Write the C-alpha cells for this entry.
Amino acid sequence: MIQRCQGFTLVEILVAIVIFSVSLLGLASLQGRVIQANNGAHSTSIATSLVHNATDFIKDQSQRKNPIFNDLDDFVAHLDGGSNYQGNLDPTCLTSASGCSREDTVKHHMAVWERELGEKLINGRGHIKKETRSISADGFVQDFDVYKITIFWNNPGTRGTGLDCSMDLSIDMSCLKSEILP
C-alpha cells in the first residue's frame, strides 16, 4: 500500500512567503508614514508653544499700567529665522538695578522669540503684525487693535518655500496663525 505524504508543496510555501513579504513591505511603508506624521505633530506642538509665548507677552504688556512699549507697536516686527532681527539676547540691563529701557526689553524678547523659531523649527520664520479694526453699533464707531501672529516652518521631508498657508506642503511651508485682542 502506498502511503501519502502529508505537508505543503514547494509552490504553496513560495506563495505564502510572497504574501508574507508583501504584507511586511506594507507595514514598513505605514511605519514610515506614522513617523513622518509624528514629526509633523511635534513641529506643530512647538509652533503652538511659540505662538503662546508671543501671546502671553502681548497680553502681559497690554495689562500693565505702564507697558514697556506704546500700544505694542515696537513689538510688531517681521522675523526670519535668525537672519533679520538684531536684538540683544543677553542685555546686561536685565540683571542690573537700573533695569532695561523699553527698547532693550522689547528687542530682547523679540531676539529670544526669533532664536527659538530658528532653533526649534526647520526653517522657522514668523511675524507679528498689528491691525486696527472698527466696530460700529448704534452710531458709535469703536476702533480696536488685533495682533496677528503667524509662524512658518518645514516639516521633516517637506521642501515648500511659499508663505501662503495653502496646506500644499510641496509649495508652501506649514503655518500656524493666531489672532489676539489684548
